[in-house]
Specification:
The chain is built from eleven helices and 26 strands. A hairpin with a 5-residue loop joins strand 13 and strand 14. By secondary structure, the protein is α+β, with helices and mostly antiparallel strands.
Length: 454
Amino acid sequence: MGQQCDRKTQQQIAQTISDDVSNTKVKVSYNGKTDSVTLADLGIKVDANAIAQEAVNAKRQDNVFARYAFWNKQDVTPNIDVKTASSSTLDQKLSTNSQQPTDAKLQMSQDGTTIEVVEAQEGNGADPTAVASEAVKAVESLGSYQPKEVAVQIKNIDPAITTDDANAAKTTLDKLMQQNPGVYIGSERFAAFTPAMILSAAHIDTDTKSSLPEGQSRNGNVVFDAAALQKIYDEQIKPNLKSTKEDREVIVNNSDKEIKVIKEGHDGVTLDNGADSNIGTQAIAAFSANKGNVEVSGKLDPMKVKKTKRHVVVDLSDHKVYAYENDKLIKSMSMSAGQGNDFTTGKCQASGDLCTPEGDFEVWLKYDSQDMSGTLTLSNGQKEKWDVKDVGFVNYFSKTGCAIHRIATGTSFSDAQIAAMAKNTSHGCVGIGWDVAEWFYNWCVMGTSVHVQE
């Protein structure tokens, strides 16, 4: 800032800067009103300690001769970002009635799995940047420059953090999440840093060249905080670590997609004494390099995953619904299919009306009870209408509205009675007995594979 700092302590340098920030006032005017404001009034924070530290560290990397050569000087030129200035004090003092801009920000998606951008909103009113710039000139001169009066202008006010800034930060964090960030023993990850965890320990800093306080690091315009990450580990991760493993148990469908978790399970983790005391510092160093691995020493007994595969076969010529676990038949049920399917062959009639469709599906919607009504125009122009109350245990598998459900009879109708009926009665759905429908509903979880064949 043009001031000699030799023979001054870091504390003295910081105090000089702080005093000048507090005492420097800029005269402002608008519509005949005048007043004065400081950088603090405008909401601009100047890290005097960081600037002083930078000054104290100047020349320390030079060789011994250059370090102590008094005629060899090194300038420290800190950057004070005027874009962070707020117009609220100008509104109070000059009655400019500004509409404050809204900074863009990052937040978790509603399902908690991804990071999304909340767009910035432009403001309107007193422009604080010209006032802030004049104050910064005076502060940077440490008293040698007298600030001039600033006539406040009314204009659109840009947010300090734009939508582009937030999108850039999201890109940085998305790339980081691709690295599976977490805590590892060797090549095995035993704890994850979720998007929500990382987001809560990070903020957007548009001044990518500014100095950071100890315990923070930067990746692009995203700044990570070590203390926040350590707190997250200590409070959200460490209490859940167990020394003895428990295997994970899941239900999958024919595509090997998990459709239900029976037991989450966990690794067996035993950390060496004090191995996780510096997780936060290790994490910000990794994150700033776009790496996810935070390695600690200890022993890991990885959990295994026990999979149970479930799938359903609807056979239109056998008039059966077959339930399989791990390719083993565990239950068969009689069924009544669509009226358009030939009862002997299962084939859909040429018109395509009122058929149970063939193919491979997944259960995508379930109701324990549903009133069903509708009108369907058949290929011959006739109207088919229905209105049935309290159809029980509904499992939709086709997006055209076909489901496996308790047969839509007004009173109880059993599996044996459906078999004895020996005909197709539905508009395309698969009706099963009242005595088996609830079991099937509970067993056939969302996402279960359904194969319909002739």
